[in-house]
Design brief:
This protein is mainly alpha-helical. The protein folds into three domains: about 60 residues, no CATH class; about 100 residues, DNA polymerase, domain 1 (Orthogonal Bundle), CATH 1.10.150.130; about 190 residues, Intergrase catalytic core (hpI Integrase, Chain A, Orthogonal Bundle), CATH 1.10.443. The chain is about 50% helix and about 10% strand. A hairpin with a 4-residue loop joins strand 1 and strand 2. The radius of gyration is 29 Å and the shape is elongated. The protein starts with a strand and ends with a helix.
């Protein structure tokens, strides 16, 4: 049990001294704090406050809840963490730094980490929602929510490191995001889209996205050895990421992301055609056979394609050919829509698209399952009516 004492300092102030533990090289460490009179407060009243504060501090220290006082600002703390974050992939770290620089530091960065309050966060939310964007434009609730989550993560780390006593971002709630349906292609649009890009180098990646629901990075990380044409299966082992101009391969987002998927005959056919075209081009250029670790989709030299470049090229393609203006990621959502319409339950869908849980799948695609629920009610009505 820690103990401490109070000594008088000057006319109307008292110093609290509590021995903590031995720091580096065995040097004694103390918590020192001064309680001074306010306005016309008597010496006895100041001493009583000092005693009460000593009891409070000892209670915190003995329970392992004490946080040493510090003047470190929120900006300084977060910059130190984001400079070399542990356990965060480079792309996420880059996004964190961007969010912090644009949404957190300008409004909260100068506040001492230990003085950050729930009121500060509520005011911050209001400012971001009203004028937090570029040129004073409002930010969307989703963007504000992302910034709040980042701050929550940083403060949770500060609590574990005993830099702050509590996580105020757990008390001040992030703005609610209005529910919105994921954009998907209708059946007639799928045919229109695939016919419109036939012969283009993005035709095969689009078919894989529609036929498997793989994420953009997962498609670009596929190797030919991950595809089993005879068994009609494809194995997802990794994903391609991009951060700071550098490309890197990474493990899937969760253990569920490492998965095997059955392939529809049409997808297999398109992949076979794509492989034949790649081999024909390599022979024409005198490059020989495909290496063991060759990527399914790459540039002419076999190097990975940048994920952002794929998205830009896709947007330019559908715009130039006057096709449905959807993002490449919409193809993944369309795959989920087809799975739900095909009668797969949420657990089967979740496994195929590599979500960490069926709960996440249900939350993300609520409107699709709600639609199927409505169809179920209609089927029951038809049966009972007959």
């Amino acid at each position: 049990m820690k103990t401490g004492n109070i000594t008088r300092r000057g006319n109307r102030s008292f110093r609290i001294k509590i021995e903590l533990d031995r720091g580096r090289y065995g040097k004694r460490r103390y918590h020192l704090e001064t309680v001074s009179a306010v306005k016309r407060e008597t010496v006895s009243a100041v001493k009583a406050r000092a005693k009460a504060r000593l009891v409070e501090l000892l209670h915190e220290i003995n329970r392992g809840e004490h946080v040493a006082r510090s003047n470190v600002t929120l900006r300084d703390y977060m910059q130190g963490w984001l400079e070399s974050p542990v356990g965060i992939n480079p792309k996420t770290a880059e996004r964190y730094r961007q969010l912090a620089e644009q949404q957190i530091y300008p409004h909260l960065g100068q506040i001492d980490l230990q003085k950050l309050s729930e009121d500060d966060l509520q005011t911050w939310h209001g400012v971001l929602l009203s004028r937090g964007g570029k040129n004073g434009r409002p930010l969307s609730p989703m963007t504000v929510r992302h910034a709040h989550r980042l701050l929550h993560t940083a403060l949770a780390r500060a609590v574990v490191g005993k830099k702050v006593l509590r996580n105020v971002a757990s008390i001040a709630r992030a703005p609610k995001v209005p529910a919105s349906e994921m954009a998907t292609l209708q059946l007639d649009q799928i045919g229109e889209l695939l016919d419109g890009i036939k012969g283009h180098r993005l035709h095969a990646p689009a078919v894989v996205a529609l036929g498997t629901g793989l994420r953009r990075g997962e498609i670009l990380a596929l190797r030919w050895r991950d595809v089993d044409f005879n068994a009609g299966y494809l194995r997802v082992e990794r994903s391609l990421g991009e951060a700071g101009g550098d490309l890197y391969f990474k493990a899937p987002k969760s253990q569920a992301g490492r998965r095997s998927l059955s392939l529809a005959p049409f997808v297999i056919q398109v992949l076979r055609q794509h492989r034949a075209e790649v081999l024909k081009q390599r022979i024409k250029l005198g490059m020989g056979k495909l290496p063991e670790a060759a990527l399914v989709f790459s540039d002419i030299e076999g190097a990975p394609i940048r994920p952002d470049k794929l998205s830009r090229d896709w947007a330019n393609l559908v715009r130039a050919r006057k096709l449905p203006r959807v993002s490449f990621h919409t193809l993944r959502h369309t795959n989920v829509s087809m799975l739900v319409d095909g009668g797969l339950d949420v657990y089967q869908v979740s496994r195929r698209i590599g979500h960490s849980s069926a709960t996440l799948t249900l939350k993300t695609y609520t409107h699709l399952f709600r639609r199927k629920e409505a169809e179920a009610a209609e089927a029951i009505e038809a049966a009972l009516g007959n």
